[in-house]
Design a protein that fits this description.
mainly beta, 5% helix, 39% strand, disordered N terminus
Length: 577
Amino acid sequence: MTPENTAPAARRAAAALAFALCAALPAGAQTLNADIKVTSLAGLAMPEAPVSVDQSGRKMSVTNLDAPPRYGSDGYLYAISNQRSGSNPQRALRMKPVAGGSYEAAAVAAVDPATGFNEQWSLASMLLRRPAGGFYGLARTVTRRVAGPGFENGAVFTFEWGRTLDALPSLAGKLSSPGGIALAPDGTLFGTLSDLANGLPGRIYRIDPAGVHAVLYDFPLAAGETAAQAAGGAWPLALTVAGNGQVYGVAGSGGAPRADKPGETPAGVLYRMDPASPAALSVLHTFVPSEGSLDDTAALAEGRDGWLYGSARAGGAAAAGMVYRIRLDGSGFAVLHTFGGADGKFPSGPLALAADGNIYGTTRNGGASDAGTLFRIVTARAGEAGGGFEPLYQFRGMPDGKVPVGLTAGDDGRLYGATRNGGPEYQRAVQFPPNSPPETVQSDGGTLFQVELDALKPGATLSLSLSAEMVTVGTQALLSWTATDAANCEASGTWSGAQPVTGTLALTPPKAGSYGYTLSCDDLLKGGKVAASTTLRVNPAAAVVLEPQSAGNGGAAGPLALAALALGWAWRRARRR
């Protein structure tokens, strides 16, 4: 439900003028390793967050992401929310990766003008950046209520900012239970699906850059077998395209019994497929419950060291999940770490290969607040005792969010993630009636966050400040900035264009509202970007109050006139209600 549906009228008027922004987390608040820094970029679903307005003038926010944001070629972060309903549009967000910055929101589902109902997309993966621009995504189901055939099956879709989601027609209605998607460097998309109800334990397909779809491999199922008995695996899930051109993936059921694990039922497989000869797909490893059980939160990522790294949500002595690795040739499988709760519980979401060559991931729960954790595998020490595992950060729920949903790597050398729930507590300035105290509000729509890997290394600095953060219409404020060890500064938000590394700008906004100013510059020391943001809040000009005229009797009528004016104002206000 949007804030407009829940706030009293006076607060709705105040919300149109006052926008609260999120600040960076306190340094090292729950950080367990000093060389990384976790920064909150935005709290989602905040009623006063700066957001865009749809065609009907409704203010939109974005809530409860199920996948981390993807860094776009334009330097923005992009994500799509699963939150939607028949009359409220499903939304995407984009924002510059700046602490305290603002995000834009836009509806991404087509609307039937006759009924007002929207398409509903149940998303199954993070976005993948297309070489040709925009993104690919995967939906578990799509419900259409617009012209054309409706379907409940999944879809591979394309997404570009400012456009609605567009399902690839070659697969429309064919993805009954989609598993995952992966993108090759040449733009070829590989994906998995299953249809157990109709006797299909699994399928691997390909979509070339021109959008042509082809079936590469169907997982076999002998007569009378169940999916759990399929020696070659069933229910394919996550997959990845390795540097050797091979497709690697996991399936959450089936597998051949293992002689070294007597009495344990197979719980899924890890496989390899050569796209040039898909019929020769081979099983590299069969999982058993004591190692890990796979579901749709499983993840795979290739390291720079010739190993494939993965996670399973369950498994281990505490049944809290594990992280493993295996060589690309199928040898050397090893469980690197099993989670126990204090160090995390239930790893889920994408693993990320970071600029430092290590593998980073998140757990949905665990840690001191049971709100999830951030961890890494130091690949150079993965063969040692402890498997190279390092706990890095514990989420607290407020203000940094809870239930993190994985990580992606940005072009700026940093990692980016999202939490599904939790978020900051903030004050909403209530201006009607006048002189009302600020109201404290807590958000539970999740957060966006950034992970800086070399926090101890000196980098560029950038300051951006206002001479006054709140003014009235017609009053001037001075915006000042200074950057050191930086170059190529670019403005965004209310202002735009290239800017010098040091400067000032006189601001006189023409109307009441909230004006966000962001500046980002190239970091000449660390690489990537350094950025800063600030917001100018402009209130309406003060109303002119007329002094009452004297009645000629020493001013005795003055208080009576004021009282009459006050009663008249109260009566008119009551009539409007």
